[in-house]
Amino acid sequence: MSFVIGDALLESTVEYPIVTGTDLDETIIGVDINDVLRGGGGNDYILGGAGNDTIEGEGDHDTLFGEEGSDNIYGGEGNDRIFGGLGNDGLFGNEGNDTIKGGEGNDFLSGDQGADELRGEMGDDILSGGSENDLLRGGKGDDRLLGGSENDILIGGSGTDTLTGGSGQDTFVFKGKDLYYDSVLRSSTTDVITDFSVTEGDMLQIDQDAYQIRSMDDFFTVSLGGGDVLLGYRGIEIAVFEGGIEGSYAGISELVTLV
């Protein structure tokens, strides 16, 4: 079953059309104004179109697209797939194990409950995992990643990112986006990790192939600077453990693993 807001609605006096689906599996398509689209029950497919839309998946497993405009999208119950598209969007997974992608713009992504995967993609985004074991990928731009509770994986991507694992045994992943080779090794950004805890089992994971690492001891250094702990690679600062590191450690191998 499909509900499509057609051109006839544009000729009416309705400024903010509201469409609410049933308990069936529906396709709901908005138009180029500010829509309120609610899926109801069922596995729904909702497209906002242009305009600053409010989209609510509600029950079951929904696929929700904001498309153009700065949209607010709420997954509701179920394992939802949420795509912001263009604009500065607010994307909320709510319950279930959700996949959320920001697209372009400076977006806010919240997994809330469930084991979620959040991808900021373009822009300077804020990603908040919430409860359970979440995967957060900042993508391009200067992003802020907040793991929340449980054991999260945080991947800043390119840009100057701030990574906060929260409680649980978290993994902070460097995939070589912040360093590149061009006759000499250069650092374009320095990521900040705000709550690294050896006591809780946090670990910094670094892509060995991306950094062309042969021996960890030969290239990595740990030093102090203004109350912070600085991680260096071949003499270049690549990460700052803001406020230091909680717990004791004997050497770099207790902070960093190569993959």
Automatic annotation (TrEMBL):
PROSITE patterns: HEMOLYSIN_CALCIUM. Keywords: Secreted. It is found in: Secreted. GO terms for molecular function: calcium ion binding. Gene3D superfamilies: Serralysin-like metalloprotease, C-terminal (2.150.10.10). Coiled coil: none annotated. InterPro entries: Hemolysin-typ_Ca-bd_CS, Hemolysn_Ca-bd, RTX_toxin/Mannuronan_C5-epim, Serralysin-like_metalloprot_C. GO terms for cellular component: extracellular region. The keyword Secreted applies. This is Calcium-binding protein.
